[in-house]
Design brief:
The protein is of the alpha+beta class. It contains seven helices and five strands; from the N terminus they run ααααααβββββα. The radius of gyration is 17 Å and the shape is globular.
Length: 209
């Protein structure tokens, strides 16, 4: 069972657009933090003076430094995380991180004129929600809610909701179906194939799915 659909790509793009919302020091407003880092990422993507591979490398570095991939992986796999062996957990974290990074890079590179409206935020202790709307020219606007968690002195994005649907819940359902039918080995192989296919297409001029 292969992973991937229009909705999944929409989730991943929206999720990772602000996944890099962790800075060196926490600030009073999660919205300001999200806005600052999003501007930085989009600035790199839109900088045509840099070679494409350099822009991808810089964005990957930001993602790698700021994703709380361990916690996200545990939430996505749910009970299957507890049942997985240490080796399976390491494999899942490795492939899942590469998968969501790769899924992010392709569509985000086409972002040129998109505008993000920061509507409001809600902060309760160590958790916050930033409510935004993505405007994409003549296309319908997309309301997106970003959920953040404060860990130490840093805010981390841990989920995103589009029209009431949660990214983590969507992945959890998809992955659970694969594990039930093919086991953890099947899920890891599916992710591995997707990562490898992306690498192959990245080395060629063909468009990445």
């Amino acid at each position: 069972m292969m992973i991937g659909s229009t909705m999944t790509r929409k989730f991943v793009t929206a999720f990772l657009l602000l996944l890099v919302c962790s800075l060196a020091h926490a600030i009073s407003s999660p919205t300001e933090q999200v806005r600052s880092t999003t501007d930085k990422v989009l600035g790199i993507i839109r900088d045509d003076s840099r070679p494409l591979d350099e822009r991808r490398r810089l964005v990957r570095e930001i993602l790698s430094e700021n994703m709380d991939i361990q916690s996200i992986s545990q939430s996505v796999l749910a009970t299957h995380w507890k049942e997985a062996t240490p080796e399976e957990k390491r494999g899942f974290v490795e492939f899942f991180q590469q998968y969501i990074e790769n899924t992010y890079l392709d569509p985000i590179e086409s972002y040129r004129d998109e505008k993000i409206e920061y509507a409001r935020e809600k902060v309760r202790g160590e958790r916050a929600v930033v409510y935004t709307v993505i405007h994409r020219g003549e296309q319908p606007e997309v309301p997106v809610n970003y959920r953040l968690r404060l860990k130490g002195d840093r805010w981390y994005l841990y989920d995103v909701e589009i029209e009431g649907a949660s990214l983590i819940n969507t992945y959890r359902t998809t992955f659970a179906e694969i594990v039930r039918s093919e086991g953890m080995d099947g899920l890891l192989e599916d992710l591995r194939q997707r990562v490898e296919r992306y690498k192959e297409r990245e080395r060629s001029p063909a468009k990445i799915e």
